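Please review this one:
***
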Amino acid sequence: MRVVLQRVARASVKVEGRVTGAIGPGFLALVGLTHTDGEAQIQWMAKKIVSLRLFRDEDGRMNRSLEDVGGRILAVSQFTLYGDAVKGRRPSFVSAAPPEKAAPLFDLFVEALRREGVAVATGVFGATMDVELVNDGPVTLILER
């Protein structure tokens, strides 16, 4: 499982011109899933994201978590995080989980985040999505489990 996590002031996702998810301060999580992912990776990643101290405290230091600031998450599925462009000019996506495996895992991830007490908005799995964001920082991490 790979997640590109961006601290945002706000973010939204549209499908066919309709907003399917929008958040104020929090994280935009671009989520890639691979063949070997399962519940253990999902649970670990949800706990990690919610507890990461990436928000500023009163001294301007990254010392507060999503929980501490009451932030939200916009989760967007992104199979291209498993693109391999080492050979040739067209990336291979064979490491990405096929949709029939990835879709239920993505749903499980969203539910795991919600069980951690976080409000979560999403895009639409498998759809062409327009994602807009205003970075806060910018602060971006790549997490893998």
